[in-house]
Write a structure and sequence with these properties.
It contains 20 helices and 14 strands. The chain is α+β, with helices and mostly antiparallel strands. It has four domains: 89 residues; 138 residues, no CATH class; 115 residues, no CATH class; 191 residues, no CATH class. A hairpin with a 5-residue loop joins strand 6 and strand 7. Helix 1 crosses helix 3 and helix 19 runs antiparallel to helix 20. It is elongated, with a radius of gyration of 47 Å.
Length: 638
């Protein structure tokens, strides 16, 4: 029994001692309390021993059990804490390992992307060039091209396999379209350079820069592009270029090899002049822009290229003088062209219909010309020129009614001659519009305005005609338009013969048969000749339509109908705009400008550019542009 109590006392003492150390000694700032603990060991032991003896046996056992349980719980907590600590350390170690691996991966060279093979791509995306990139595997690239071009059916798509004579040899192939390329360039500048002329001991050390190495050291071409997307590559190949694919390279080399047959620079067909240049645009874009640059040798002349047509993918050149054209006008032109969404635009006439302000108005809002010198004259005024690849005409914007009536020859002639021609054209405009209507009005409603002798002659000629005047007029107008169209469509000299002989024979036969009065034939002939005097084909075509409207109004209402038609015609013209510029500027609304509307002044007096374009530079030339008039007289300068 004595041994039991001694063991119990020893356990209680050890337990209290451990609790005391945890509470005081292990806390910072309580190190000095450890000395008091040694001094009070005996006292604590005696007190515990006396207290244990004074209590009952059961109470002492309960306390001993509680002490053992508390100590066990604390040991379990310590063990759990140690385990958590070990787990946290392990997790931190794993995180550090992952970060270290990620840093190592970043430091490694990135492998070039390799597109999925065609059989693994989604069905709806397969064959779309915009989704494909050049692969490092040569056969994969061949598979792409076979899928895109349908090489089993396309016989003008040529693929040529060869080896680049380096050490080691590089397997490659090139692709081009037969008929669009110059085979001499392909044979001599590409294949011969890569297969024969290079040093056979040439060693390619940087396998990751194969395409760059070939472009910089082995190809002598002046225009070589390095591309990795199939959409860009195909656009160039479809335009006569040649693409080279190399084994182990994720980029393609595209070399300019255009060489199709083209028409040379000809003479104008619809804008012929006696004085001035006799050059006209052809169907090649670069040839046309070159003609303009040849005449306008200025570094500020800008040529921007946009592509339109989802299937045709045609190049459109936008040309303007950077320090002269209004930036808002340039941005508006580029915005309208870029916003066009269609699959085909082949000529300038189609593009004109997409960008004009009022497509249903009979007057054109875009000027069409085939003369480079006329384009230059508009560019130096602040206009913008648009040229479509494959079209032999250029578009000028904005345009006014008066610029449509001007001819490029007006400025090449002396002032009196040029003004005479301009007045003649204005008279031709009114004759084209009003002559048939005036004739119908006078004959049907206002006979008092005709001299008596002439009225009797008209009445005598009309006695044998069984049809009313309006019917006669429309029959002759229809016959004249038919002869005009036939003369245009029939080629060469035969077309001119049909136009002259057909009109004479048809008119004479109709008059002798009593179907048409002779005076009406004269009226229709004068009207047709006046329409040919209009220099712009588009405005001439529109005036022919408007003439029919005036004729119908005159047949029903006489002069009142013509007056009402003129009012509506002027209202329509005033309301029209071309790229924000009023169609009747500078007359409606009135704008201060140099004398160059109906009549023009001497070229040396036109000091400022037109104000309605708001150009960046309004001054064309100084007030005294003829420097020779400042010669000295009597030893003094004037």
């Amino acid at each position: 029994m004595a041994n039991f109590w001694e063991k119990l006392e020893e356990k209680l003492f050890n337990f209290k001692n451990a609790r005391y150390q945890e509470k005081f000694i292990l806390e910072p700032g309580n190190e000095d309390k450890t000395e008091d603990k040694g001094e009070g060991k005996a006292e604590d032991k005696g007190e515990a021993k006396g207290q244990a003896k004074g209590e009952g046996e059961e109470k002492a056992l309960d306390k001993a059990k509680d002490a053992d349980q508390d100590k066990g719980r604390e040991q379990e907590k310590d063990q759990a804490g140690d385990k958590d600590k070990e787990q946290n350390q392990a997790a931190a170690g794993e995180k550090e390992d992952k970060e270290r691996d990620a840093d190592q991966d970043k430091n490694k060279l990135k492998k070039p992307r390799k597109p999925l093979p065609l059989h693994k791509q989604k069905e709806k995306r397969s064959g779309k060039p915009e989704d494909l990139y050049v692969s490092m595997d040569l056969e994969t690239n061949r598979e792409y091209l076979n899928k895109i071009y349908a090489l089993s059916k396309n016989k003008d798509i040529i693929i040529r396999d060869f080896y680049i004579a380096t050490k080691p040899p590089l397997k490659a192939f090139l692709i081009f379209i037969d008929g669009l390329t110059d085979k001499n360039i392909i044979n001599n500048d590409i294949l011969k350079s890569l297969m024969v002329l290079i040093d056979e001991g040439e060693i390619v050390e940087e396998r990751g820069r194969l395409a760059e190495y070939v472009m910089e050291h082995l190809l002598p071409g002046h225009d070589v592009a390095l591309l990795d997307q199939y959409r860009s590559i195909l656009d160039l190949v479809n335009y006569g270029n040649t693409a080279i694919f190399i084994e182990g390279c994720d980029k393609s080399l595209v070399i300019e090899t255009k060489g199709w047959d083209r028409r040379g620079v000809g003479i104008p067909q619809t804008e012929e002049v006696i004085f001035g240049p006799h050059e006209a645009f052809n169907e090649t874009l670069r040839s046309n822009t070159g003609l303009i640059r040849k005449a306008l040798r200025n570094e500020k002349l800008i040529t921007e290229i946009q592509k339109i047509g989802s299937r045709t993918n045609v190049d459109v050149a936008i040309m303007y003088i950077d320090d002269l054209a209004n930036p808002k006008l340039v941005e508006e032109v580029k915005h309208r062209i870029a916003s066009i969404k269609t699959d085909y635009i082949g000529v300038a006439g189609i593009l004109e219909q997409f960008i004009e302000d009022a497509p249903f108005k009979l007057a054109p809002q875009v000027l069409t010309t085939e003369r480079p010198d006329r384009v230059v004259s508009f560019l130096v005024e602040g206009h913008v020129a648009i040229i479509v690849d494959g079209s032999a005409q250029a578009l000028i914007v904005p345009v006014t009614m008066f610029s449509l009536l001007h001819s490029p020859e007006d400025y090449y002639l002396r002032v009196p001659y040029g003004n005479f021609l301009r007045v003649l054209r204005v008279l031709a405009l009114f004759i084209t519009l009003l002559t048939p209507g005036l004739y119908v009005s006078v004959v049907n409603f206002h006979q008092e305005m005709i001299p008596t002798e002439l009225l009797l002659a008209i009445a005598a000629a009309h006695v044998i005609v069984p049809f009313p005047t309006i019917f006669e007029l429309f029959v002759m107008e229809f016959a004249f338009e038919l002869i005009r169209e036939a003369g245009v469509r029939v080629p060469g000299v035969i077309g001119n013969t049909i136009g002259i002989v057909g009109a004479l024979i048809l008119g004479q036969a109709a008059a002798q048969a009593g179907i048409i009065s002779p005076i009406l034939i004269i009226v229709v002939a004068i009207t047709g000749l006046a329409s040919f005097a209009i220099p712009n084909y588009s405005i001439s075509f529109g005036l022919r339509f408007i003439r029919f409207v005036f004729t119908i109004l005159a047949a029903f209402f006489g002069f009142f109908g013509i007056s009402g038609g003129l009012f509506l015609f002027l209202v329509t013209m005033v309301s029209m705009k071309s790229f924000g510029v009023p169609f009747l500027a500078p007359v409606g609304p009135p704008v201060k400008t140099e004398p160059d509307v109906v009549l023009r002044g001497p070229v040396w007096s036109m000091e400022k550019r037109v104000d309605y374009l708001t150009p960046l530079d309004e001054i064309r030339q100084p007030k005294i542009s003829r420097g020779w008039i400042k010669n000295t007289r009597g030893g003094k300068q004037q």
